[in-house]
User: Which sequence fits this backbone?
């Protein structure tokens, strides 16, 4: 069995904080950011209202206010323009978005926890999360060797945490070994361990341009109805040395968040994924729910289920909402009515 270390999970102040249980708090939010190739890029993502792809040279513009408001952690996804190939060569190209962003953010925000998503789907010509054999089947050994190489490169570029989301078998052990070989043995590994084959990743695939060109991901992401397989995956990744595990999608998997919390001794994170985010935004735009209340209620649910931290596209807005701001100023008519009621109540009081 692989020896399991405790130091990577307590190397950064934010990771230390997540070792204890706690409720909704700015310290327990992670904002996923799409970092794109190109200069001065700010591309709104149609499927994810309010989220954009950002060029590395504009990251400070988005992060300055979020960090000032209390954001402690970001999760970086790369989006490339050109250069997709069979082995996802651009994932660890030093000039690619994620390595460049890591180098920049490490100096620009010395206290921010930098988590780099590790996967191949945004970099491969076929859009799958691993390396394929000529017959189209998944080559697990080649995939985990390549993912480990990418994780090591991200650690060297400045990631505090590498987060494999590919779901190849035994990549956590391979990544741990690769981190050691580049003398980054205190870099933490956040494993997307219980990642189910969900329909709720659609908006993300548009954002990252990572939809598979053929087939689907059901041979490596877990079948949603299977609770016991999800538990095996969680335990297996912790045995291989994961410092934290992630469950996704979020609300559809609250049961697994609770089970993970009880079954493994590392912090458990929940990911409120792109489709969940889009559902709430559209429902709010249609007047069905209040966005602030929905975001706060779902955040409370993740923590009630046992999450130590939550990955959510609402993170920057939640900074304000947790501090008690209103989403939008209430319409003047409502404010006027409230004021009149207050005045009448005061006049009627004895
Ligand atoms: C890719 C990856 C996906 C997400 C995170 N990393 C999508 C997928 O498996 O196709 C989903 C995140 C979201 O929907 O917000 N490995
Ligand atoms: Zn992938």
Assistant:
């Amino acid at each position: 069995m692989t020896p399991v270390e405790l130091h990577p999970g307590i190397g950064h102040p934010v990771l230390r904080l997540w070792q204890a249980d706690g409720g909704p708090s700015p310290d327990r939010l992670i904002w996923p950011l799409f970092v794109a190739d190109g200069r001065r890029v700010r591309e709104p993502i149609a499927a994810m209202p309010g989220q954009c792809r950002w060029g590395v040279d504009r990251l400070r513009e988005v992060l300055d206010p979020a960090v000032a408001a209390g954001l402690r952690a970001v999760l970086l996804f790369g989006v490339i323009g050109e250069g997709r190939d069979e082995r996802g060569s651009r994932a660890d190209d030093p000039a690619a978005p994620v390595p460049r962003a890591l180098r920049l953010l490490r100096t620009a925000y010395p206290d921010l926890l930098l988590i780099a998503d590790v996967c191949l789907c945004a970099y491969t010509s076929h859009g799958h999360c691993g390396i394929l054999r000529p017959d189209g089947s998944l080559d697990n050994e080649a995939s985990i060797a390549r993912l480990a190489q990418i994780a090591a490169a991200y650690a060297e570029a400045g990631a505090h945490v590498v987060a494999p989301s590919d779901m190849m078998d035994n990549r956590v052990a391979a990544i741990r070994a690769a981190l050691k070989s580049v003398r980054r043995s205190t870099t933490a590994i956040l494993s997307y361990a219980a990642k189910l084959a969900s329909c709720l990743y659609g908006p993300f695939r548009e954002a990252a341009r990572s939809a598979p060109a053929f087939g689907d991901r059901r041979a490596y992401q877990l079948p949603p109805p299977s609770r016991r397989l999800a538990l095996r995956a969680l335990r297996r990744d912790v045995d291989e040395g994961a410092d934290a595990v992630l469950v996704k999608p979020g609300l559809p998997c609250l049961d697994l968040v609770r089970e993970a919390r009880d079954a493994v001794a590392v912090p458990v994170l929940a990911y409120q994924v792109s489709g969940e985010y889009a559902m709430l935004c559209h429902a709010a735009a249609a007047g069905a729910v209040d966005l602030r209340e929905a975001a706060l209620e779902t955040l409370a649910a993740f923590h009630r289920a046992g999450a130590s931290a939550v990955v959510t596209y609402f993170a920057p807005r939640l900074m304000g909402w947790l501090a008690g701001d209103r989403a939008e100023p209430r319409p003047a008519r409502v404010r006027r009515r409230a004021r009149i009621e207050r005045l009448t109540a005061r006049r009627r009081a004895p």
